[in-house]
Fold this protein.
Amino acid sequence: MSSTAKLDERALRKRLLRLEAETHRLEMASTLADLRRPMTHLRHAPALLGLLGSNNRVIDSVADFLAARRLGWIVKAVPLALAGWRVAMLVKTIVSQHRGVTKSST
């Protein structure tokens, strides 16, 4: 392989790694935004409840149950736990890809 071809391959590999890093950065930023705003998933709830009808006593009972102050932490904790899980999986993916790159380059 000529030196020009090696330089081109190295430049392409660097560009690929930069793009992967940028992709991971954007995913992490999105996940952190979810962590900062844990209640945004509930903005569609009124429309969904409207589709079920206004005379549904089961939905009213469940809504009252979830609105109780004792269970308010669950509504906030579930999205935070899911976002934390996504962050952990992203970090795990990044670390495993980094290990794969370092093993293949040796």
The helical segments are 3-36, 45-52, 57-67, 72-105. Residues 3-105 form one domain.
